[in-house]
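Here we describe the complex-level prediction in full. Unlike the single-chain runs in Section 2.1, the two entities below were treated as one system.
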Amino acid sequence: MKSKHYDIVVIGGGPAGLSSAIAAKENGAEVLLIEREKRLGGILKQCIHDGFGVTRFNERLTGPEYATRDIKQFKELKIEAMLSSFVLDIKKEDNFILTITNTNGISKVSANKLILAMGCRERTAKQVFIHGTRPSGIFTAGLAQQLVNIEGLMPAKKAVILGSGDIGLIMARRLTLEGAEVVGVYEIKSTPSGLKRNIVQCLDDFNIPLHLQTTVTRVFGEKRLTAVEVMKVDEKMNLISGTEEVIPCDTLIVSVGLIPENELSEKLGIAMCNATKGPIVDNNLETFVNGVYSVGNALSVNDLVDYVSENGVIAGSAAASSLKSGKERTFVSVNANKDIAYIIPQKLNLNSDLSNVTFYLRSKGNFTNKKIVFKKGSKILLSKFMKWINETEAIKIVLELKDLNEDLEVSIE
Amino acid sequence: MKNELICIICPNSCVITRNASGNLSGHLCKRGLDFALQEFNDPKRSITSTVRTKFTDIPVVSVRTDKEISKDLIFALMEELKKVIVKERLGIGDIVIKNVLDTDVNIIITTNLLKE
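The structure predicted for the assembly as a whole is:
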């Protein structure tokens, strides 16, 4: 079987993949984008609420509006896309050989470079140890969102929401607007996971109660969910016996976190980061398998789609320019102290063609009136005062690569 | 009447209160004061939702208000949206309800799904 060859193949047609493909094409590469769904746009298609693009476009767009801007540019650049197609396998020989399945059967393409933009997936009820029967009526927040916003179906009459992440809060409002009763949102932690704005506009506006330090422990019902049991937890998140309460409902919406999708990355033997659950990357967002890049929520789960798109621009342009320059990679390390949950990139390639380095870091815990400090030996490269450092909001820092020729130490002081 | 709110302009999350004579306190900045004045007197929201179409492959399309609308009108607005069936291949920015509930707010489509 003769396979068609591309400079760069992008896997995933959401915001990360679209902006990667656009940047690569604009920098002169022949690009193919592979998407498993029949339409481009990824998860943005179903995120019909607004608030997207505030930093990139200085506008509050809905998800579909944001995606449409990238799709328009993608089409104007006449970038090749393979839709309804799934990558089964990737092998590294002289080039990368991808095995793809779609309605035409199985085919192969080859590429010099790969950009992995597979996004993330939701944790499910089975991953948070809820006991009981297996009735229908238990949905992840994203699935409920797809049913309501894309299929036009209502999955709930009386719903309980587990987890106070933004998608859960947004679905609490969405279901309420469509006529369901949302009995309450239950969060195991002592602080909400979602943005304050969403607590006010999604819960308080509709008098939906938020129960902190409380979680769902059991589900009831044979065919359809009839009730859930909730329990309070102590500071160490241990269940407090005697606090069991049974809440009648027909639907449980689970919004308990997202995990980068990296089955393909693992097949390639890419080194992964325990903190991000995505690949370890350098400042070009290139992984430690040469020629493979990781972007968007496959790299780390982002708060803002604007950052996801930015990832794509970095990887797409770096991949395209390295086709021409082909420089060897030389590394220094980026070391973060204990107050930092993670920093991306974890390594710096001093031979990058990009003159700036964009860092994304997330704190472990919340801080007030502290500084983010970047040091090279004893020399302070950057000291940025921040009134608020919240673990729910990633911080972006841009530095010039020419200043970063030794190992870096990053801390919150 | 509600006399206390949490400001959502920045992470300070000030609790702003209104006393019997209508004076506001608790805000740390002017932006918070402006937010609270609007929020106490006539709270407004952007609303996003979906409306039905006559096309079987795309049963619903997403829509939004083109300006903010009074919070009190949210559920009346949802009833208006239920009456809409999109019969043409409309796209982003096309109006499906003009001047909804006499508010001077239009309901516009936010997707090009019907045009693809």
